[in-house]
Amino acid sequence: MVRAGIMDAKERVELIGGELVPMSAKGIRHERLKTFVMMQLARKLPEPLAFTPETTFRLSEDTFVEPDFVVYDNPAALEGLNGPSSLLAIEVGDSSLAYDRGRKASIYAAFGVRELWVIDAVRLETRVFLEPAPLGYRRVTDVRTEAMLTPTFVAGLAITLSDYS
Questions:
Q1: Any idea where the domains of the chain sit in the sequence?
Q2: Residues 136, 143 contacting (CB under 8 angstroms)
Q3: Per-residue model confidence (pLDDT) at position 113
Q4: pLDDT tens digits for 110-155?
Q5: What angle do CA 3, 6, 11 make, to 5 degrees?
Q6: For the structural domain made of 25-163, what CATH number should be given?
Q7: CA-to-CA dists, residue 147 to 39, 61, 106, 114, angstroms
Q8: Which UniProt keywords apply (predicted)?
Q9: Range with the poorest average pLDDT among 52-56, 106-110, 114-118
Q10: For 15, what's the count of Cα atoms within 13 Å in the CB-facing half-sphere?
Q11: Strand 57-60, strand 63-65: pairing
Q12: β-strands 69-72, 19-22 pairing
């Protein structure tokens, strides 16, 4: 579409069920918190696990999303990465918080993403989604800033957002 002149290369969109959905612009709170989370993942993620920031996560032929982070088994697995093979998807929500917790969480669940964290960039609280089902996640828990975030499928990783400054 960029080559055809339909859209600019810098436009931020996701493909959801064949529909182009514009993404919100990222603010400084989002970027600062995303940098903190990325540094935590880089320091604490056990081998051979890997993470990729802002990857085009292809959930199906007509659904591509762009999580802030996706954690998976090893770097070689990135090519075949899909919902069930991801261990954790992380979204940092500022202006997009309601969308990330609502429609986007439902999309992740429908495609079998086992665990999703949506971090509120303002309040520094995290909504953890587990047990995906076709119509949404069966378990949803809110985690306070000072509590330790420990993913279900990533042994040895723990992040505390109160460490963010």
A1: 25-163
A2: no
A3: 96
A4: 999 999 999 999 999 999 999 999 999 999 999 999 999 999 999 9
A5: 90
A6: 3.90.1570.10
A7: 18, 38, 25, 21
A8: Endonuclease, Hydrolase, Nuclease
A9: 52-56
A10: 11
A11: antiparallel
A12: unpaired
Task: Report the C-alpha gap between 141 and 122 in whole angstroms.
Answer: 18
Q: Tell me the whole-structure pTM to 2 decimals.
A: 0.86
With beta carbons less than 8 A apart as the criterion, state whether 105 and 137 touch: yes
Is 53 in a helix, a strand, or coil?
A: strand
pLDDT at 79: 82
* Cβ count near 3 (within 10 Å): 6
Q: Are 113 and 132 in contact (CB under 8 A)?
A: yes
Q: How far is it, in rounded angstroms, from Cα 1 to Cα 165?
A: 40
Query: Alpha carbon of 73 to those of 48, 54, 131, 158: distances in Å?
Result: 6, 17, 19, 17
Count CA within 13 A, CB hemisphere, residue 8.
4
Rg (CA), the chain: 15
